[in-house]
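INFO  loader      accepted 1 record
INFO  loader      residues=250
INFO  predictor   begin
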Amino acid sequence: MSQARLLLVAARFLTRLPLPDVGVHPGELRRAAPAFPLVGLVVAGAGIAVRAGAGPLVGPVPATVLACAAMVAVTGALHEDGLADTFDGVWGAWDAERRLAIMRDSSVGTYGVLALVAVAGLRVALLAPLDLAGFARAAACGHVLGRAAMVLAAAVLPAAAPGRGAEVVGRPGPVGAGVAALTVGITLGLAVTWWAPVVLAVALVVTAGCIRLFRRRLGGVTGDTLGAACQLVEVAAVGAVAALVRAGWV
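INFO  predictor   done
INFO  writer      dumping tokens
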């Protein structure tokens, strides 16, 4: 029951699904973090269902746009908001204190808008040419690896500011780390088989870049930066899988 509760805590934190409110005890969000990749599978599943249902009716490109919109709706644009705030803050000031202040501002600036347009456009452009099977492979890998990047960043960096993101910071226990690793391994193994190390390497390189950036510019992570890492790793993984699918290797 404790593991099921942690999965529910993770799902309530990362999505806007109508789930029971179980309350979050101190330290529970950090213990729930290894379940984030599992939640990613749920989000991907929503997009796959919409693409499957809309594709025969409106064609692959509009269906892909609808599928991506559905995945954003499931999360309440949580990670997109983090992406925009992070880009505004990281590139909008000369010191960490001012950058964090900009990130707390609810308005979206030029850097944030450009980041949102670039990531959303890339996601649709990469997914639209794929058939349903290819879309499912790419979406599943992208959403699982994006959430795994959040877990890794929160495990190796301190909190840069108080907030919900700070509650995720910390190394997962051996059981939690095993759950996250197993989720990633099974997803990649089923989606891209022998090419799993390639997609994983792409995700790890982008995650490492995010970690380095957040450490140098902010001194750690916040909830916004975790969302930004999720988005950047997701689109990188989608691109890697899409390339494999288009090459006929998976």
